[in-house]
Amino acid sequence: MRVAVFSTKPYDRQFLDSANTSAHHQLVYLEPRLTVETTALARDVSAVCAFVNDSLSAEVLEPLARQGVCLVALRCTGFNNVDLVAARKLGITVARVPEYSPHAVAEHAVTLVLALNRRIHRAYARVREGNFALEGLLGFDMKSRTVGVVGTGRIGATFARILAGFGCTILAVDPAPDPACIAAGVRYVDLPDLLEASDIVSLHCPLTPGTRHLIDAAALARMRPGAMLINTSRGAVIDTPAVIAALKDGRLGHLGLDVYEEEADLFFEDLSDKVIQDDVFARLLSFPNVLVTGHQAFFTADALQGIARTTIANITGFERDGRAVHEISVEKLA
């Protein structure tokens, strides 16, 4: 099968080529993101392979369908960037990677917690300048802290288990509580109670209409003064201007982000010699108690191997049987 692979970097090619050794698909690697303007690059292919910041709106899917594309193979778990209804009407199958390495993202979320708590990012910069003063670097013991986990799918549950190992009390909110989490001592509560009781709140929920700006001004007002907020899920789960306001007035003590609502024009690119035009993002970077990473939580060799294997399996299954292994069903989501 001939596949146009958008938003590719050298590491994508490395792992996809390795996974494709026995499948023998024709992978056409393209550096640009998939947008209305770049759909023409997908001529003479039967499938496109897209990533988190590629657009798969109706306006993108329609020209793809006219060009003969019948499969969208997402090399990610989330699919909020896909108009699934339009895809179904156009006869385009959409597949995703439902699981690759929950440990990769969960461990990165824990890394953000520990780095913010002990001010590792600030200490690193100080020491390199010969400043060994400890003022401003005071942290807290993790033991006996209350951690709120929003979403206990595979990643959230893994994060909860790790923090439980630190001796933390774990609260969680999820429409479908996990019996394994309950057996491990996780207590499910509603979101307001979780926000009010938690020293650390970590977001691990998908982006849906119901979770968009889940953490808004009202939610932030419920949080404990000085609490820590971590987001490794999707950027739009947080209302960024509301978070900035909470940082400015000192109510929010720490913020760790691996995702950002308007990240499409920033993340995965080297902009070190350019002026960042996003004033909201630039304001975030000005706070000493904010730590931002560029959507790298998934970025481990184990995770990339898993993503590549599942992506190739989806393409192979569709070519062989007309059905991708991990096809997204609009009916099941309704």
Please supply descriptive tags for the structure shown above.
single chain; 334 residues; alpha/beta; Rossmann fold; 2 domains; seven-stranded parallel sheet; five-stranded parallel sheet; 13 helices
Annotate the secondary structure layout.
Blueprint: E1 2-5, H1 10-19, E2 26-29, E3 47-50, H2 58-66, E4 71-74, H3 84-90, E5 93-95, H4 102-117, H5 120-128, E6 146-150, H6 154-165, E7 169-173, H7 179-183, E8 187-188, H8 191-197, E9 200-203, H9 217-222, E10 227-231, H10 240-248, E11 252-257, H11 279-285, E12 290-292, H12 301-321, H13 330-333
Parallel strand pairs: 1-2, 1-3, 3-4, 4-5, 6-7, 6-9, 7-8, 9-10, 10-11, 11-12
Helix pairs in contact: 1-12, 4-6
Strand order of the largest sheet: 8-7-6-9-10-11-12
Computed CA radius of gyration, to the nearest angstrom: 21 Å
Specify the CATH homologous superfamily of the largest domain: NAD(P)-binding Rossmann-like Domain
The proportion of residues in beta strands is: 5-15%
Residues in helices, as a percent range: 25-40%
